[in-house]
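Lecture 7, part B: from sequences to assemblies.

Below are the input chains for today's worked example.
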Amino acid sequence: MTRKPESELMELADREVDDAATLGGLTSDERAKVDAVGELGELVRGHLELSADAVADAKFARAWDQIEKRIALASDAEAPTGANTETAETAGGGGGLWRRAGRWFDRYRGHVITGAVSASAVAAIALYVHAPVDEARRSGSGQPIDVRPAAYRPAELESLDTPGGVSSVFHLEEEDGRTTTVIWVTPQDQDMVEDL
Amino acid sequence: MNKPGQRASIGRDAVDDQALVAGAKAGDRDAFRTLFERYHRRAFALALGVVRNPDDALDVVQDAFVKAHRYLDKFEGTSSFYTWLYRIVMNLSIDHLRKHRRARPVELDEQQLEEQASDDSLLPKLLGGNPGRALLDKQIRARIDQALSELSDNHRSVLVMRELEGLSYEEMAQAMGCSKGTIMSRLFHARKNMQKRLVDLMDGRAAVIDGDAPADAGEASDGDDDAKPREAATAVRSR
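Predicted structure of the full complex, as structure tokens:
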């Protein structure tokens, strides 16, 4: 009997050659080799599958989180270049814009809610802190302050000290009732005044 | 555990996958998550088998699912989702190996391993025909792990693809971008080297056939891809 080349035995083991007659005609050693190839395969496969099964679910859960983040980042990066697609979807009446907005909201739902709650809290604190000022404003007229002089009265000068001379103050009544005030100064030394 | 040759494209799963893929294409995040939950461990086992480091394998799985999501529109559904996914996982695993290649070139490493293994051959028995029981033994598993790690990257990749995914020689050739002969050669030497490293775990007697490897143009020094293996004499040795 012609001995089979080992490559043929391997092909038989891998079922690349589906020849029952060939398999039946093998010697015991050849048959054992075919079986050993299968056995080695089971050892390798079993070892790798058990190794994969030994990895904790939490690790894969973290891996999925990373995958999700990277997909979201990739989608965001592609969004500007995907403007034509978006337009086409909108034009086609497929609600692409709404769907995209919905997807965005779904993706950032947590951020949106956190932001809204934070903004509300800040607004509430601001209202609380500034409430006394507003109350003070509310207690006034609420109108611009009208500044008026206390009285309209002309100046009243009865005397004036003038260095180097003597001054006199005259109040001249005019016809319309108004009063003009005149200050007359007489120098003590006429010559000195002329020198100036 | 999956049986050898099991394909994701058969049975009810494939139909479900198609619906999930359609949903994921339409933006249904839960559909894509279901696909992840369905295949992440299988993809991880494949990546782990090739890159060997669990953290690196997890990175590969992450990258693979991100890439799958990105190119989901290009998935036409002619094959199953997992068939498509494992190609991505496999390509990324091989890319990972290239980026983190060890100091010595893989080609030299393979030649060396093939030379070392050339005076031995496929062995008729490993662990008494009960691999399921053997896998309960931590020491045996550690030995298998060590043996896998000592294979060259190319040998290990082919062995993992074949044993874990049950790919045909032709499918592996397509996935790795090489000839069927190269795949056969790598697979043959990978098995032979694994057996050599696990030989002391054997019980019973072992037979050795001298030099009967499939010729490989890509890695061996002579012959074309589909060259026929040589006939060889058989020697039997006892332990």
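Note for the exam: Helices of chain A lie at 6-13, 20-24, 28-53, 57-78, 83-91, 96-139, 190-195. Keep this in mind when comparing with the next example.
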